Amino acid sequence: MTAVLRSQGMRVVHLPARTPYAWKLQSHDFRILNGTEIPTGEKVPAAVTATWLLEHGPLTWLDVLHLHHIDFEDIATLERLLDACLGDGVKVVFTAHDTRPMVGNAEEFVERLRMLHLAEVNWVCLTQGSVTKLTEILGERPNATVIPHGYVAAPETLADREREPSGPAARYLMFGASRASRDQLSTIANWSLGIRDPRSTLHVLLRAFSPTDFADGGRAPLLLEMAGRDPRIRLTMRPYPTDEEVVKAGLASDSLLLPYLWGSHSGQLELAFDLNLLPVCSLTGHLPEQYERHKGHVEEPEWFDWSQGHPNLFGEKFLTALENAAARLESRPRRLDREFLDYRSQEHRTILEQYARVYGGDR
User: Fold this and answer.
1) For the segment 185-203, what is each residue's pLDDT rounded down to a tens digit?
2) Cys-Cys crosslink for 17: which of 34, 219, 278, 279, Cβ 3.0 to 4.6 Å?
3) SS3 for 166?
4) What is the mean pLDDT of residues 160-176?
5) How big, in percent rounded to 5, are the helix, strand and coil portions of the chain?
6) Is the CB of residue 145 less than 8 Å from the CB of residue 126?
7) CA 59: distance to chain centroid?
8) Pairwise CA distance, residues 13 & 67, whole Å
9) Bridge partner list, 65
10) Which whole-number Å values give the CA distances from 164 to 101, 247, 250, 336, in the listed order?
11) Per-residue DSSP letter, 101
12) With 50 as the cut, is the pLDDT of residue 3 above it?
């Protein structure tokens, strides 16, 4: 690391920067430009787009472009942005959060991955399993460094907080956008009919709906109808839930429901570890490897496998896991694990050191 890097800090733009995963990546070696003014006097949006960056070239006002979810960018625009970064001396880093698309089709997703690989960007993978999967997709290993996801709730923000005392029955939480990869509908129905304790509750924290959620085949109307039939279910909607709102909901819960139909990695699973919530979680993607990293420090999730067998058995597997989780939740009170939070702090220091090397290496 050079003296210039240590004194000034690498200037990093995250595309986008709306999650704790991005915002926690700051140190004396590098700082985030999202939300700050550039020399023109304009502010870099938190959810910056490739188009916005191209409109504000030359990109000499940043050192590193850190790409995250590339599904939302037009591929031709993304390619132009990569060319601009090459021409302006901006290093490009890509975190492969997903090894299959969250939106769009698989062919377009793979086309984006191949474009990044051909551009020789620096990849970050959250698990070794994702490196293996991406190597299969690309036909050769990307220039990847494995850096784990790390915390979602910063340990220092939990120092003077504690889980809200639990009552006589378990409190369940489910949150996030309504996506095809997350089966909220059958989860709500199975919870409502399968958990018969009248004192149990389910809090569903939603991101604001869009017209597509109500268009043909949209899931929002059914979700609202089912939730309205059970007074134990509480819906909360926010434009885009803040980190504090999510943490507050977690501290008032005992178990986090993660009904992924597919997925590669899960920040929600890491949040469950942070808050000592019992995850009821799909056995999909590289989520088991996320748990294995912390094995011995956290409880094993109550897994259920949605990927194998007849699709009509999926609900049976989830409800069995839900009943097992209810029995586990009866065994002891759940409090924040201070030793685990200390472990998270040390893990984060290592993660920042790894990113300093990825950001500050040869361009």
Assistant:
1) 999 999 999 999 999 999 9
2) 34
3) coil
4) 90
5) 40, 15, 40
6) no
7) 28
8) 8
9) 13, 92
10) 36, 11, 9, 10
11) -
12) no
**Phi-psi domain of 238 (left: phi exceeds 0; alpha: psi -120 through 50; beta: other):** beta
Half-sphere exposure of 300 (CA within 13 A, CB side): 11
Q: What is the Rg, in whole angstroms, of the alpha carbon atoms belonging to the chain?
A: 21
Write the single-letter amino acid at 282: S
Question: What CA–CA distance (Å, rounded) separates 110 from 121?
Answer: 15
The H helix count followed by the E strand count for the chain is 13, 12
Q: Which two tokens stand for residue 43?
A: 């502010």
Residue 358, SS3? helix
Q: Tokens 């036909």 belong to which residue?
A: 139
What is the pLDDT, as a whole number, of residue 104?
A: 74
Q: Which amino acid is at 235?
A: L
Residue with tokens 């699709």: 311
Q: Can you read off the two tokens belonging to residue 225?
A: 């109808």
Structure tokens at 97: 């959060």
- What's the distance, CA 68 to chain centroid? 10
- Token pair listed for 317: 């597997």
Residue pLDDT, tens place only, 50-88? 999 999 999 999 999 999 988 888 999 999 999 999 999
- Tell me, what amino acid is at 107? E
List the structure tokens of 333.
Answer: 């009170």
Among 128, 104, 94, smallest CA distance to 22 is for: 94
Could you give phi then psi for residue 234, rounded to 5 degrees? -120, 125
The encoded tokens of residue 314 equal 């999926």
d(CA 261, CA 284): 8
Tokens of 12: 């990093």
Q: Which helix (H) or strand (E) holds 63?
A: none
